[in-house]
Specification:
The structure holds two protein chains of two kinds. Chain A contains nine helices and 19 strands. Chain A is α/β, with parallel strands linked by helices. The longest helix of chain A has 24 residues. The radius of gyration of chain B is 14 Å and the shape is globular. Classes of the chains: A alpha/beta, B mainly beta. Bound molecules: flavin-adenine dinucleotide. The site of flavin-adenine dinucleotide has 37 residues of chain A, from α1, β4, β7, α3 and α4.
Chain lengths: 376, 106
């Protein structure tokens, strides 16, 4: 089966949906594919309220933002194919290979491609890390908030960035006990609102600590706890400070890595994006990669948050619509400037500043690439 | 079966049709439309496969179809990601040994 579309969006998370909405709003014919049976990416597990300014949906829960995006997609008549994996992209404009429902093959010939494939959770290696019950913090979020199953009775969280803090609080909301949050750094990470919540809830906080091992139960089918220890200023465990913490689940919240399988297959250029990911696609202010007509947005272009993923998706959607001649340069410039203004507001503060710098560095390297390759 | 029935933010658990799957010969109930993995967790089953090299039990890690740590043999097909494969009434699920075998394969 073959299909022609103007824009193919891969991934129906906040980035992909926002890209589709913008592009469709300017009259482009858009197809969105996602391998899941439901759209929304990671948004439907984010039951906490977002913050920032009202313009950035502060006070609105992630799940409600997801519902809003889906309504818009529907109103605009964008086609969304679920249970559809994009598993290959061929050179020489030979199309993108899709597998529908695990059975049917299909080749799509898009004029523009927006890759919004998200990220995956980083593991952390220590003795016992492969035991059942040692899981990603995001996986916990998915199980308790989306599928409504407990992951354990007493959970130990490793890492106190926003995901670690948010999931800890959501564990309490789900009725689980939290054995504590472990953080190697001397202070909790993440936004103040989130760390204040877990503190107020009385969660034991082990800053300046690391995990030495997960302790298995008798038949290795799960864990009964962890041995933790204090670390010195060089993050080395201090002998004699070891202690056992009882837990039947350990959550690992040590960051995410951009999902770059498809951009790599498309042979776009990559760079080290620092805190955004060690391998991220080079891209410009339009979110376009080193391959003409291939755009990236959201976590796959550097791991940030749902709110920035939405803004990046909008940029890619507008830029792709512009490149298709759906809007003139002036209208596009105006629309993009608005999104950038909003994005710059999101990338402020103690955490945002670092992300802003890392993004600017990617864009600067892309500019260099353009000069070297006469692509200006 | 253990479920988060009453959630402070999400409210009461929505009613869903019950379906039955067989896991290593034992029938367990599941909620229609959920992935195999959450049905297993709700029924206290933590191990999805036995690792190929060290022959140790393994369970899910990412829960969103990225890491393949949760693969099992489903209806005779090995290496099925249970975190993104939905339950169907009458499904036969088996703890996978190593890389698994196709039905009929020696
Ligand atoms: C488990 C998890 C939990 C998180 N929790 C939070 C949180 O609580 N708060 C927060 O601010 N941020 C959180 N994040 C960070 C994340 O930055 C954003 O929340 C946001 O969802 C990123 O949006 P996205 O559209 O880039 O990616 P996603 O929302 O991940 O969407 C990408 C989509 O693309 C699909 N896809 C990928 N590859 C293919 C393919 N080849 N074919 C078809 N479909 C494909 C995926 O299945 C997915 O549905 C979390 C991230 C993860 C992974």
């Amino acid at each position: 089966m073959n299909k022609d579309v103007e824009i193919l969006v891969i991934g129906a998370g906040p980035a992909g949906l926002s890209a589709a909405i913008e592009a469709a709003r300017y009259g482009a014919d858009v197809l969105v594919v996602d391998e899941n049976d439901k759209p929304g990416g990671q948004l439907f597990k984010q039951i906490h309220k977002f913050f920032g300014s009202r313009r950035h949906q502060a006070g609105v829960r992630g799940i409600d933002i997801g519902t809003e995006l889906l309504n818009e997609v529907q109103e605009l008549g964008v086609e969304v194919m679920l249970n559809t994996v994009a598993y290959g992209i061929y050179p020489n404009d030979e199309g993108v290979a899709l597998c529908v429902d695990g059975e049917t093959g299909m080749i799509v010939h898009p004029q523009k491609i927006i890759m919004a494939t998200g990220a995956s959770e980083n593991p952390l290696a220590f003795p016992g890390w492969t035991l059942p019950g040692v899981v990603g913090a995001g996986a916990i979020q998915t199980m308790i908030n989306v599928h409504r199953v407990p992951v354990g009775k007493r959970v130990l969280m490793i890492g106190s960035g926003n995901v670690g803090l948010i999931v800890t609080y959501q564990l309490l909301q789900s009725g689980a006990e939290v054995a504590g949050i472990l953080e190697a750094a001397p202070a909790l990470g993440g936004y103040g609102v989130h760390s204040a919540k877990v503190r107020r809830a009385g969660v034991p906080i082990y800053t300046g600590h690391t995990i030495l091992e997960a302790v298995p139960n008798e038949d290795l089918s799960g864990i009964k706890g962890a041995i933790i220890a204090k670390v010195d200023e060089r993050f080395q465990p201090i002998k004699g400070t070891e202690q056992f913490i009882e837990a039947d689940c350990i959550g690992i919240a040590v960051g995410l890595t951009p999902d770059i399988a498809l951009p790599s297959m498309a042979r776009v250029g990559f760079t080290n994006g620092g805190r955004l990911g060690t391998q991220v696609p080079l891209h410009d202010r339009n979110m376009m990669t080193t391959k003409d007509g291939i755009y990236v947005a959201g976590d796959s272009s550097g791991v940030e948050e749902a709110s920035t993923a939405i803004e990046e998706g909008k940029l890619a959607g507008i830029a792709a619509a512009e490149a298709l001649g759906k809007m003139d340069a002036e209208a596009a410039a105006g629309a993009k400037a608005k999104v950038w203004e909003s994005m710059n507001q999101l990338r402020t503060g103690p955490f945002g500043d670092g992300r802003a710098q890392a993004k600017e560095e990617i864009i600067r390297k892309m500019d260099e690439w353009k000069v070297e390759n006469n692509a200006c | 079966m253990s479920r988060i029935e009453n959630h402070i933010i999400l409210g009461e658990l929505e009613e869903k049709k019950e379906v039955w799957i067989t896991v290593d010969g034992k029938k367990i109930p599941a909620r229609e439309g959920e992935p195999i993995l959450s049905a297993l967790l709700a029924n206290g089953i933590k191990v999805q496969n036995i690792s190929a090299k060290k022959h140790e039990p393994r369970g899910y890690f990412c829960g969103i179809g990225r890491c393949t740590n949760c693969v099992m043999t489903v209806n005779g097909d090995p290496n099925v990601r249970t975190c993104v494969t939905l339950v169907e009434d009458g499904m036969v699920v088996e703890t996978q040994d190593g890389l698994g075998k196709w039905e009929g394969q020696e």
